[in-house]
Amino acid sequence: MATPDSLSLFTSLGLSEHKARETLKNTALSAQLREAATQAQRTLGSTIDKATGTLLYGLASRLKDPRRLPFLVGYIANKKIHTETQLSAALEYVRSHPLDPIDTMDFEQECGVDVVVTPEQIEEAVEAAINRHQPQLLVERYHFNMGLLMGEARAVLKWADGKMIKHEVDMQVLHLLGPKTESDLDKKSKVVKARPEAADRRKAKDVVENGVAAGQALALMEQLRGEALKFHKPGENYKTPGYVTTPHTMNLLKQHLEITGGQVRTRFPPEPNGILHIGHAKAINFNFGYAKANSGICFLRYDDTNPEKEEANFFTAIYDMVTWLGYTPYKVTYASDYFDQLYTWAVELIRRGQAYVCHQRGEELKGHNPLPSPWRDRPVEESLLLFEAMRKGKFAEGEATLRMKLEMEDGKMDPVAYRVKYIPHHRTGDTWCIYPTYDYTHCLCDSIEHITHSLCTKEFQARRSSYFWLCNALDVYCPVQWEYGRLNLHYAVVSKRKILQLVAAGAVRDWDDPRLFTLTALRRRGFPPEAINNFCARVGVTVAQTTMEPHLLEACVRDVLSDTAPRAMAVLEPLRVIITNFPAAKSLDIQVPNFPADESKGFHQVPFAPVVFIEQSDFKEEPEPGYKRLAWGQPVGLRHTGYVIELQQVIKGPSGCVESLEVTCRRADAGEKPKAFIHWVSQPLTCEIRLYDRLFQHKNPEDPAEVPGGFLSDLNPASLEVVEAALVDCSVALAMPFDKFQFERLGYFSLDPDSRQGQLVFNRTVTLKEDPGKV
């Protein structure tokens, strides 16, 4: 039996509640883990972080000799053993040295204790591996097995962090080969020796990793063509599995074809009660994209049937985001356009004995098995009079509803069609005090607009029967509802209620805070719409719900910005550098290519003066081995200038901090190649730069098993860093809000709307390369 104390202890180590409960079923393991955690807490005198907790669990589950537990826990708690590689070495050591006492010096040497692997050592090891394989790399490019490079670097640096090695490999390969081309994205052809039937099975299986089909995703338009999706053709609704026909169906379909001419018609029907988010991007691409791919039309229809939650700014924002993603609605419509017709049909439904006025309260209708309505069989005439009374405002809110006589797939009985709400509507004012529900409105608006394919997310599958039932009960044209899987992202919340809580708590500024995944937030952060559309294409038209990692979206952003964001130079932590032998009496004009890989895209001009500013990290007075940037006796090149600078003097302030450098410069000889070229600015503009990171620390901040304290307790304190006095070259002086740049060696940035003349503000969109810690 799991005790609350043990369960709490194990989850505090980073175990999920499920894993903690499974651990408690193993008496020996839970006892050893409890002892390890207790000893670690005693050593630390504080709570145990997740990384340490993970190692303690690995120790407790793999240690065969309990006598060694205190010895090894001490090393883990004191961070002397802090990687999985070290733990494996330690366990192997104590297994192979069963006798007391342990030779601590030999143990520490064998387990890499106090071994520090610097970034420069990793850089050097990776560079050596790349040099060994450079000819093959240049031929195979991104089809080369990068694992070979990581393995060779790891062999040299046994105790290095594997994620840091991968990051360095990615960076150096990118520097050598440049961005990926179309041919790099093609699947590498392989000679596979396998039985034909085995090959056929592999081909038939859609291999998916992180929700993205292995290999290059089909372009969205190719995925959405009718023959690819196997949707019904317009007018052939009856061929769809599960479609319900009546004696009137074929005649209604004939009339439908006469009106549409056999044209595909879809609609995107958002509720105007919030800002669209990344999940809506898939819906927009699917609805508008399917129509476009099949030479059809798509309506933007606002489902404005709940006036208490609707705001005018949401209507505008939704339209803006649809057009920002590159789509133009055939027509903008509103459910409220059809209120008169919907009311007339409701009266007809009562007359046909298919609806009735009910007085059960909302709370009585909740739950899995609500009581049947005692008014279900009331006379038609009585319901007609009562519905008219509802229309005239003779009932208070909640006193009466109109319900339809059907049972839905999820067992829900008699869904509500109309309810009383004394709230003015943004378009119809006080004309109505009763408003239709989604279950009633959705299919009938689709019928009015002669939608051929009603594309909905998977949760609406339970409403498919009511969709068909209602159209057939009124003898009107019945479209076909098709469902697809929702798109979600880890490390995100998208519900309106929770975003409002974040705003109220001061965690974010508003709906468009760049740390959110609303579309307005992504636009403000600098995500190009093409990248979001490409991401949706890579996800594909899946039936299952898909939860993606944010870094996959960011990869799509990099792909687009690599080709579209002109280069500029900026310095986040400036260090003043004085060139004592500057080669001219005044500043020089330097021509910098907008896209170094394609100079045909033009150049911009920046000044090069006797005083330049470089990043503080690009200079070290006492560099560690392998450091390649500016140091004593180690010159560096200044990007795009053709000059090399060499250190002559370090000027320090009263506190001993470096305030500026004096250097000499010389033209780079044809045979001279400095170890590094660094970016710089001269006569720069001062700007504010906002560096964004994930808003939440856990993948599923809304999951109580993962975040027991609720999503507001999971905020990442480092999600925003503001650099108030960064420097940027003057080529960006005339930039407009949302203009995008690559700041060389730093990442991609977008001009924020907060910018004013002389006060530029940039948002970091993404880093140049994926952060290995986020994979």
UniProtKB/TrEMBL annotation:
The reaction(s) this protein catalyses: tRNA(Gln) + L-glutamine + ATP = L-glutaminyl-tRNA(Gln) + AMP + diphosphate
Name this protein carries in UniProt: Glutamine--tRNA ligase
Record gene name: QARS1
Summary of the function given for this chain in its UniProt record: Glutamine--tRNA ligase. Plays a critical role in brain development.
One GO CC term on file: aminoacyl-tRNA synthetase multienzyme complex
Residues covered by the Glutamyl/glutaminyl-tRNA synthetase class Ib anti-codon binding domain: 565-665
EC supergroup of this enzyme: ligase
GO biological process: glutaminyl-tRNA aminoacylation
Location in or out of the cell: Cytoplasm, Cytosol
